[in-house]
Structures are given as C-alpha cells and as structure tokens.
C-alpha cells in the first residue's frame, strides 16, 4: 500500500574518497571504507534506538552502501525529525574524526578523510514492491524527487567552509517557523544542480548547540572524544568545525 509522508532525509558521503584512493594502499583504502561503514552503523542505529524510533520502515530507515549513508526519518513530528537529523550529522562528523582510521592517519600527518552531509525535508512515497513481497521482504521502499534533491544538496557540501553540512530551503524554513531549533546558518547560496535544470538555495550549518550530541554518541566513539578533539585542534590545518565543537565543550555547552 502506498503512503505519502513528509520525510527528513540525510545523505552522508566520504567527500575525498577518490583522492584518498590515489594515495592509500588498497589495504588502507579498504580499512577506511570498513571503518566508515562501522562508524555510520553505530551512529545511525544507536541514535534511532535511543531516540525512540521504531525503524524497519515504520517511522524511519537507514542504509549504508560503499562510502555513503542514507537516513530517512518520518515519525510525523517534523521538528523532532529535523533535530534528530542535525544531531546525527554532528555525531557523524565527531564519530568519523574519532575513528581508528582517521586517528592513525592524523597522527601520521597525512590527509584526513572527510564527510560531507546534506539534509532536506520533502514528500516521499513509501510502498512495498510486489516482487519483494513475493520473496518475503516486506520492507517498504522510499521514492520521490526530494531524495534526488537531497543527494545534490549533499554534493554541494564540498563547497562548505565550516561544518560542510548543507540543508535545503525547505528544511531551513521549517527551522525558522517557530520550531525553536538552536541552529544557525551561513548566508544562503544559489546552486544549479546537475540534472535538475533549475537553481536551488542551500544553507550551510555554522552552529548547532545541543547538549545531547556527545552524551548520545555510541559508547565506543564517545570514549576519549575530548582528547581526540584537542589533538585535532593542535594540528597545522584543522577543519573549522572542530574549533567550534571544542569551544562548545570547553564552555560545557553539551
């Protein structure tokens, strides 16, 4: 049975995987992908469980394939879903920085792999494909233009200068419509997305303060996170968002 829902959609992707493939050995590249997938699994599954999502296509679903994570949230409470997506985004950034692979690469003074994230809200259709029912897989598919748009918003995160977490105009408007989500954005940018034939507005997250970010990190990723952030800040060219997170921790904002 088809059902139209408003979904908050998140895409996370290894931005420089192609460049990393050129400078890493095959074994190191495989190690990076495995560590990325493990980190995405821990962040997504732990968050959905701890924040009361049922999953299994009921109010959310997620998947990780290769160097990309997809998360769909449609609990019916749009503010809750948006806050969850922003929390997941920041936990992805922290978790990937703290991963065993990136920590080793960082200490060796080599290029650290980065994650770009795109988030947006829009209508999607949930339905179970007949062929999946016939083989006993009744998990619904999610389809819709909003998914393609979110993928392109994620691609624009490569042009970001702070968190490299980009959101679409619909999510940006919802954040400002009395939803009291403590997030700030950079000045809007106009992008012409390939294949869409029209210009779209995107907004980069430059501040998101939420006391639940670190306490709700998976236990393995949470361990030693402050020391890892302090080490990253001391490096020659740390990413700008690391300063903001580290500063927030020092002020006990979390």
Q: Would you give an account of this structure?
A:
The chain has helices spanning 17-23, 26-50, 78-97, 100-107, 130-134, 145-156, 169-176, 219-222, 225-233, 240-250; strands at 3-14, 60-65, 68-73, 115-127, 141-143, 165-168, 183-185, 189-192, 199-208. It starts with a strand and ends with a helix. The longest helix has 25 residues, at 26-50. It is built from ten helices and nine strands. With 254 residues, the protein is α+β, with helices and mostly antiparallel strands. Strands 1, 2, 3, 4, 5, 6, 7, 8 and 9 form a nine-stranded mixed sheet that branches. 43% of the residues lie in helices and 24% in strands. The chain has a single domain (3-250), classed as 2-Layer Sandwich (Alpha-Beta Plaits), CATH 3.30.70.
Uncertain regions spanning at least 5 consecutive residues: none
Overall pLDDT level: 84
**What's the CATH architecture name?**
2-Layer Sandwich
Query: Helical amount among residues, as a percent range?
Result: 40-55%
Brief account:
The protein is an alpha+beta fold and 254 residues long. Helices cover 43% and strands 24% of the residues.
Helices and strands in order:
Layout: E1 3-14, H1 17-23, H2 26-50, E2 60-65, E3 68-73, H3 78-97, H4 100-107, E4 115-127, H5 130-134, E5 141-143, H6 145-156, E6 165-168, H7 169-176, E7 183-185, E8 189-192, E9 199-208, H8 219-222, H9 225-233, H10 240-250
Parallel strand pairs: 4-6
Antiparallel strand pairs: 1-3, 1-4, 2-3, 4-5, 6-9, 7-9, 8-9
């Amino acid at each position: 049975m088809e059902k139209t829902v408003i979904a908050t959609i998140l895409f996370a992707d290894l931005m420089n995987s192609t460049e990393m493939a050129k400078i890493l050995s095959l074994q190191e590249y495989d190690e990076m992908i495995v560590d990325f997938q493990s980190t995405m699994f821990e962040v997504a599954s732990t968050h959905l469980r701890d924040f009361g999502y049922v999953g299994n296509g009921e109010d959310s679903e997620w998947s990780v394939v290769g160097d990309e994570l997809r998360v769909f949230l449609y609990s019916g409470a749009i503010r809750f879903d948006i806050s969850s997506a922003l929390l997941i985004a920041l936990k992805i950034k922290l978790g990937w920085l703290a991963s065993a692979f990136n920590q080793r690469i960082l200490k060796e003074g080599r290029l650290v792999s980065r994650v770009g994230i795109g988030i947006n809200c829009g209508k999607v259709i949930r339905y179970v494909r007949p062929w999946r029912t016939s083989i006993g897989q009744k998990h619904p598919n999610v389809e819709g233009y909003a998914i393609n748009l979110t993928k392109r918003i994620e691609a624009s995160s490569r042009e970001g200068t702070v968190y490299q977490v980009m959101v679409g105009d619909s999510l940006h408007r919802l954040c400002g419509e009395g939803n009291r989500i403590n997030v700030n954005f950079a000045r809007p940018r106009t992008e012409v997305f390939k294949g869409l034939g029209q210009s779209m507005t995107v907004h980069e997250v430059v501040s998101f303060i939420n006391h639940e970010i670190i306490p709700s990190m998976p236990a393995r990723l949470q361990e030693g996170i402050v020391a890892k952030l302090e080490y990253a800040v001391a490096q020659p060219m740390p990413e700008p968002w690391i300063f903001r997170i580290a500063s927030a921790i020092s002020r006990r904002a979390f």
